[in-house]
Specification:
It contains one helix and 15 strands, in the order αβββββββββββββββ. The chain is mainly β. The protein has one domain. The strands form two sheets. Strands 1, 4, 5, 6, 7, 8, 9, 10, 11, 12, 13, 14 and 15 form a 13-stranded antiparallel β-sheet that branches. Strands 2-3 form a two-stranded antiparallel ribbon. A hairpin with a 4-residue loop joins β4 and β5. It is globular, with a radius of gyration of 18 Å. The protein starts with 6 loop residues before the first helix and ends with a strand. It binds 2-acetamido-2-deoxy-beta-D-glucopyranose (3 copies). The site of one 2-acetamido-2-deoxy-beta-D-glucopyranose has 9 residues, from loops. InterPro entries: Rot1 (IPR019623). Keywords: Signal. GO terms for molecular function: unfolded protein binding. It holds the Pfam family Rot1. One of its GO terms (biological process) is 'de novo' protein folding.
């Protein structure tokens, strides 16, 4: 896939980790909702309802992150686990969490969840479909990231451009690991659920099986 980086973003690719945000890949601000692929997975009420703790299954898999300008983030993921070789059954899972983020001095992002609020739902398509809900909270360090203008965003017609956020997984020791799928800016301001903590207690383990 062809991607043309505008000058500022390309220059930033070198030694990004050492630069503060103000000069690091900050082609536009992080603020907004960012979504992979054609945007089937988006943060917000259409993905997760915190009043009933229920997920709405998106049409296709993907990931989405949202950020506010005042340090809040939200995450939505709908993924398929293809590595269950044992019985060749497809396991799908959805994750929702939110919390606060900081941009660290070395340019990395620390995403801290509100532990009481996050959930993961696993769906085992084999035989009879089992659905399990778990309390979920996972701190994420994004060691490296940058924003660029994507000239071939795929889901738009030829000639269109879209802001894209490229984040990297934590490769250990704070170093950038594998590149995540690029996320495209789909809403600004972000489409998010209330950014404050919603629940007071963490309920451990599976509490519901249907
Ligand atoms: C860079 O990020 C800062 C902080 O989010 C923001 O205030 C600023 O507007 C951004 N720069 C551009 C060009 O959008
Ligand atoms: C994915 O499959 C592997 C291997 O069966 C298993 O260890 C892992 O827990 C699964 N992860 C999820 C999120 O289903
Ligand atoms: C960058 O800063 C974060 C937060 O302080 C830290 O966890 C991470 O290890 C640092 N990365 C490197 C490469 O030192």
């Amino acid at each position: 896939m062809l991607r043309s980086f505008v000058g500022a973003a390309a220059a930033v690719l070198v030694g990004l980790a050492a630069l503060p945000l103000a000069s690091a890949g900050n082609l536009t601000s992080l603020e907004g909702t960012w979504s992979s692929g054609s945007g089937s997975v988006q943060t917000g009420l259409n993905f997760f309802n915190p009043a009933t703790n229920t997920f709405t299954t998106p049409k296709a898999g993907g990931i989405s992150y949202s950020f506010t300008g005042d340090g809040h983030w939200e995450q939505a993921k709908y993924m398929f686990n293809t590595s269950s070789a044992v019985n060749r059954c497809v396991t799908a899972y959805m994750i929702w969490q939110h919390g606060t983020y900081t941009i660290n001095a070395n340019g990395s992002l620390s995403l801290s969840p509100f532990p009481a609020d996050g959930y993961m739902q696993m769906i085992d398509i084999c035989g009879r479909q089992t659905i399990k809900m778990f309390s979920y909270n996972q701190f994420e360090l994004i060691p490296q990231w940058y924003i660029y203008l994507d000239s071939a965003p795929g889901f738009l017609s030829a000639g269109s451009t879209a802001y894209a956020l490229q984040m990297f997984q934590d490769g250990g020791d704070g170093q950038a690991g594998k590149a995540m799928a690029p996320l495209f800016l789909t809403a600004r301001p972000a489409n998010m659920l209330p950014t404050t903590q919603l629940h007071e207690q963490v309920i451990n383990q599976a509490f519901r099986t249907t």
